[in-house]
């Protein structure tokens, strides 16, 4: 969780947005989602696990600013740490996450998009 706070600090520093953890318990909950799905739900699909942390951060909105960007970095870090990445161009990835955050897409839509563009890291 601490390194994710550092990621958020770096992300908002690039744009001049404000940093701060609004809801530490919500951040902890979002960070625990992949582990809980894997450990208790026996989920093994790395994309599902990566999207679970993305979704948790986007929905819980634990930071003052930079939640969507931090969520995407967290999801990609989980993929990369497990030997994968996604090849969605930035011009498509940003709008995809914005549509999800706005409630126009479901978690399953993000999983599908990530699975379609999953590559070896």
UniProtKB/TrEMBL annotation:
Q: Where is the signal peptide?
A: none
Look up the domain of life of the source. Bacteria
Give all residue intervals belonging to the Fido domain: 1-116
Q: Which InterPro entries match?
A: Doc, Fido, Fido-like_dom_sf, Type_II_TA_Toxin
* Pfam assignment, any one: Fic
From the Swiss-Prot or TrEMBL record, what is one GO molecular function term? kinase activity
Name-wise, this protein is: Type II toxin-antitoxin system death-on-curing family toxin
